[in-house]
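Troubleshooting log. The previous structure file for this entry was overwritten by mistake, so regenerating from the original sequence record. Sequence copied from the archived sheet and checked twice against the printout by T.R.
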Amino acid sequence: MNKLILLIGALLLAVTSCSENKTEIPTKEKPLLKTIQEINPSNGTTTTFTYEGDKITQASAGLYMGVYKIIYTYTGDLITQEDGYINNVLYVSTEYTYENSKLKTVIYKETNSGTISLAMNLNKLVYTYVSENSVDIDIYTYSNNNWELRTPFSKVKIYFSGGNITKREQFTANGGVSSIVYEYDNSPNIYKNIMGFDKLFFTSSFTNTFNRHFNIQDISNTNNIIHTESDHYKYNYNSDGFPVEKRSYYTDTVYLVEKIYSYY
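Regenerated output below.
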C-alpha cells in the first residue's frame, strides 16, 4: 500500500511540475508601431500605421499638400508592392521581387498623376549577395528603352552584422566611394514586429522622395541607430524596450526631442 501511495504521489508531482513549466512560457505579445510623431517645428507631422495581424496595410500622414498614404501589398509574408498616394491620386509605385526569401530587385516608378508635374522616373536596384554579411546593389535608370547604370552613383554596397547595417558604401562610375558607418543601441527597432520590413534593404540606397515624408527609415535593422559620422541620437524606452522618444544631438549636454513613437 505504501508503495502505491508513493507511486501516486510521484505521478501527481510530475503532472504538477509539467503544469508549472507550461505557465512559465512567456505569452506576452510584442507591440506593433502605431504612430510616429515628428516634433520638428518645420514639419510637425504624425504618421499612422494600419495592420491586418502583423502585416502592414497602410501608412498615412497629413502633410502640406493633403493626405499622403502608402498602401502595402503582400505575397505570402513578403511585401511585393508599395503604392504612394496624395489625396487618393497615385504618384509612386515600388515593386519588389525576392530570391530565396531575400530581396532581389526593386523597381521604383514616379508617375505624372495629379497636379504636381513629376517627370516619369524609373529606377531599378539589383541585389547580389556577396556573403551572409554583405550585398552589392547595382542602380539603374530607364533611358532610351533600356536599363542603364545610373550616373554618377551606380552602385551601393551594404555590410551587416547581427541584423544591423554597419556600413554603407556608395560608388561612382569612375571608382570614387563615400561611406557611412552606423552604431546601434541594444533595444528592438521600432519596426521590428512588422512582417516583411526586415527584408527591405533599399532604404537610403537611392532617393525616394515620397517615402521620406513618412519618416520610414532604417526599417531593416534589428536595433536603433545611435551614431553615424554626422548624427548622434539618444532614446527613451517603454517597458518592452521599444523607443518611445528619439532625441538628436544639439550640444554636448543637450539632446532635443525629434520624434515620439506609440505602440499597441
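The radius of gyration is 23 Å. Archived copy saved in two places this time.
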